[in-house]
Amino acid sequence: MRDSVPDGPRDGSVAGLVELDRTSLRDRAVDRLRQALAGGELDAGAPLVLTDLSVRLGISRGTLREAVRQLEFEGLVEAGPRGRLVVRDAGAVDLERMFAVRGALEGLAAAMLAGRPDRAGAVTSLRVRLQGEVGAGADIPDLLVADLAFGRELCGLADATTLLRAWETLVGLITRAVARADPADARAALAPERRRRVLVAVAAGDPHRARQVAQEQVAQAAAALVRPSGVASAGGPSGKLSTVNG
Amino acid sequence: MSLGGVESGTSLGGLSRTSLREQALDQLRNAVTSGELPPGARLVETELSAALGISRGTLREALRQLQQEGLVEAGDRGRLTVRTLSDGEILDMFAVRSALEGLAAAVVATRPDRDTLVPRLQSALDALEAASGSINHMVEVDMRFHLRLCELTGNATLVRTWEALSGSIRMSIMFAGADRAVANMSVPRHQQVIDAIATGDPDRARAAVDDHMREAAANLLSHHRDAAGA
Question: Which helix (H) or strand (E) holds A164?
Fold first, then answer.
């Protein structure tokens, strides 16, 4: 998901890249834990036992603590009674309203980029990303990675600090919304065509229109993922947490 | 700098390790957002760890967290300093607030129980009008008004996202000094936002927030120009 960060050495035997390797380990741990939390592998309200998790993921507690902080930021973990970290009950969060926030932020990002005289570089960078991503028929987790990567880049190119940080608070809940949806609905929400429409609108250079298009795409994705009835299948894809270190 | 040491040596053995880190983090965050550690100030690990009475490892972890929160930045050769906001970054900050709080205003304007929500926003503004004392307290009361606006939407995600930015928001309010910060707390300008929401027209409500934020940002930028010309 953080494809700007190179992977660590595959056999884990190369010395001298400690910091990079550590960063990528943390990011992989974040990805793995995000999937587990969003997919319901860990129960809402359950305490996160760091000693246990660090062993299961094969990472140090320091690295794990950084990963968990990121997930707290993304809305999947929260401080429970007596300051212990617990799995946040994201089921209680209104996902439709979350998408309203996503629409406001991605709409702002699109408008900011469209309003820039020197937007060509940003447009190229988004286009290259779109061309390199998986096709519409790919697996849903890969489509989600592509969708999040595009949103992250859209916001990061517009404003890499405040706007991107605001957007990152939504990642956990977006992942959860996809994990809970029917596969057909998830595909409709994550279709590459949505990102292409945003790109075209940004390239055209009309901020008002770009904002509108970006908001429409988010609203349509939300409509596909979040059923008005609020009915959602229990549980989600299961699987055991495995090490990210090998 | 008057960073107090973190209280330690309590009888809460295991607990105090975690809370030491959290307490150090809180103190550092407050020192940065209140301007006690001003923008551009260098963060010297040895000094800070001694002032806070924590290990350098614990300090480094706290600083990494502040970096993630956008309060601290790494400069040449990885040296950490309190983040300095450029004009562009201030404009971006207020643009993001405008997107979030504009959404909030539009939502509150169209809620069926708007008539009971508007007085609650008004009472937050009354508190701002009555506020006096330290600049930190004034900023808190000002921020409470804007947080209240987000809370009245009933959108928990909107509140969470706004709160995630609150350290940076506080920093941007204080960035141009106390006088500018207080000037931006003008009651009539906040009143325009409430009045627009009270009309029930979401577009007017959103536009009022946009105007408010644009003006607030401009006040901070013009200060930069004055300072540069002086």
Answer: helix A162-168
Count of structural domains within chain B: 2
pLDDT of A171 above 50? yes
Query: Which CA distances in Å does B109 have to B13, B163, B181, B208?
Result: 51, 22, 28, 12
Chain A residues near residue B92 by CB distance under 8 angstroms: 112, 159, 161-163
B134 residue type, one letter: S
* Structure token digits, residue A109: 């990002």
Q: Are residues B65 and B102 in the same domain?
A: no
Question: Could you tell me if B219 and B141 lie in one domain?
Answer: yes
pLDDT at A204 over 90: yes
Phi, psi (rounded to 5 degrees) for A56 = -65, -35
Residues A169/B160, Cβ–Cβ less than 8 Å: yes
DSSP string, chain B: --PPPPP---S-HHHHHHHHHHHHHHHHHHHHHTTSS-TT-B--HHHHHHHHT--HHHHHHHHHHHHHTTSEEE-GGG-EEEPPPPHHHHHHHHHHHHHHHHHHHHHHHH-TTHHHHHHHHHHHHHHHHH--S-HHHHHHHHHHHHHHHHHTTT-HHHHHHHHHTHHHHHHHHHTT-HHHHHHTT-HHHHHHHHHHHHTT-HHHHHHHHHHHHHHHHHHHHHHHHHHHH-
Question: Same structural domain for residues B49 and B159?
Answer: no
Residues in A touching B22 (Cβ below 8 Å): 83
Residues 6+ apart with CB under 8 A from A126: A150, A153, A154, A157, A199, A202
Q: Are residues B117 and B7 in the same domain?
A: no
User: Is there a single domain that holds both residue B176 and residue B160?
Assistant: yes
Tens of pLDDT, residue by residue over A71-125, are 988 889 988 877 788 998 877 788 999 999 999 999 999 999 999 999 999 999 9
The pLDDT, as a whole number, for residue B226 is 56
- With CA atoms as reference, the chain A residue closest to B83 would be A161
Q: For chain B, what is the radius of gyration of the CA atoms?
A: 19
Distance from CA of A214 to the nearest CA of B (A): 13
Are both B11 and B76 inside the same structural domain?
yes
Residues on chain A touching B65 (C-beta within 8 angstroms): 69
ipTM of the prediction: 0.82
Question: What residues of chain B lie within 8 A of the CB of A62, using their CB?
Answer: 61
CA distance A65 to A101: 27
Average pLDDT along chain B, 230 residues, taken 10 residues at a time: 42 48 84 85 91 87 83 85 89 96 98 97 95 86 96 96 90 82 90 98 98 92 55
Smallest Cβ–Cβ distance between A101 and the set B19, B157, B168 belongs to: B157
- CB nearest to B92's CB, from A101, A163, A170: A163
